[in-house]
């Protein structure tokens, strides 16, 4: 409807600029919100409760005021101090400076510096595509829009990507305007280049502006335009090798940091972990780049001229609106640094440091590692670079010192500054350039702890992962998330911590299984998983009676197989990948033997068989383990029985809105392992049969007229409420407020509950649980509810299906209507 209105409007009022398009999208966004929002009416009982709350709060305020007025000054001061020192407080507060001080600090950060000319120029590269025209087709832009995140935080225009996607009636105007901006035909207004920068505290009780982290949100339309340009830069960079092999910060078709970390480990191993190294950290790297130097790099990079012109047209217009909490501090021009907040900024920074990487590679000796049995092909380097994380290494102190001199010169030329405190070295000659490491010190490079000899401290890394995983799971458990969302959050926020290190650290299968055991213990301590319950069930999908927890062991199998497959496919076109694969094969790591391991574990014979059905094989192995357990297997026997409706039986797990602890207890009951410690104990009701879950749930004769009847009536009440809502007799969704009436009727249907159905013949079974007569369809439903054990399910269903055959025949003759018998049998 909105698209139709826009088509009609734009037929007479063609958008002439990006501002017009933004206004139309925002207007449509507001209309959509008004149309889709539901009208809410104030309820009297809510107002009464609110009035009571306000009255109690006022009384509490008066009591507190009286208490404070009668308390001694020293006690009040002590209470204030204790409150400030409370270690349990996670609130991050801003104190110790005013708004003008904060604005001045960040204004100075992005203030232009005097140009430095140290004689170290940027060599010009010739690719032959400098005069190429921009090729930004409608299809190209449309493909980019399709994969935009719907609800990414917008900028000052408040336009979301969701509406850019859905308002396809504006796409032809938007596509043309994007081309005009890229070609320099159109020049957007200032808002287009203005980001909203939120200053977020890095730590609790921040007292200085430098303790704030700037997070910038650019307008989504700006990010779309720069994304188009960035995609073209990435294609040119890959095609014409514009970025060195040692900078993987923006490389495609690779796992950048992980591959660099593997190469780093291999290089040091080949040279006996005796290389002299320098780990260099750049202070406020993105915020320090000189614009003049950036333009020089772009002009000499070999990229098409239209890209350079586009960058030179937008960079001078960069500015941000600073916000501290809810307070607007002011607007600052970005006269230095690369504006963050879009996909283009990392690419630009990588291009800035690319000449440095080439200088180091050409001037200084490199360390070589083999890429296969043919020793003539080697991978050689003397440094690694991931965005701004730089590591230098050499065999001689003098060589490393000269490399550091060139780095310092290049940094001054680019406007960058080395962070002495966060940089490190094991070379005594560089003690004035970075922190000198002793035998006990370690440095975290690319997420991996290394000692001064570049040995990976695997145990320390695993310890840190477990500690952080425990903290995150603990914090998530304190939230009010339901069971489904909690497990999803644990998978994405906590268990994902191990992802990067799978394939990076040489971890055996037993280590991954130990990690799974560690997670299960955490969940058991938090009562999210009951310890005697079925542990395999945790890892089954929720639509298969599982709980949907990710298994670290299973995830590792998938990731290692994919990583190895990628290395094997690209080893002939990438010396880097060939070197990594050869190193893994020489060391016979778990990743190198993952294919054979999976063949042995799952009984497969081909790689394609594993790749296509690994997840199914993993689930099958879980079910096979469950079948070996006498009690746990009871529930999962139903998966092979067509009598059971597995998708419906899993609804409470897949879509239920219950707490994690309740779900754990209910799953524990279904696993039938509640009384395993006292297997000889008798039923407390009948005193004769063994005390088991199945016996207490359905088989105890002493509970038939009490607990079982009450449960049966609750099920009938639930079905009755659903039918009442279905035929318009009631609107309420609250089951606890629903009362069952024997007979209810309206123009659509008649519903009888547990009442005798009058017939001409005397029939023994003439009192079904629910009798429903659909008057419009002239259809009668006889609904019978039953609860039984899994072993008796089939017989009970057949019994209830045929119990009312005679009654159905009589009703068909009396009402001249179709009659259907529906047995609802639960276990």
TrEMBL record:
Superkingdom of source: Eukaryota
Signal peptide: none
Entry-linked InterPro entries: DNA/RNA_pol_sf, RT_dom
Ranges of residues in domain Reverse transcriptase: 181-450
PROSITE patterns hit by this protein: RT_POL
Protein name: Uncharacterized protein LOC115229538
Phylogenetic lineage: Eukaryota, Metazoa, Spiralia, Lophotrochozoa, Mollusca
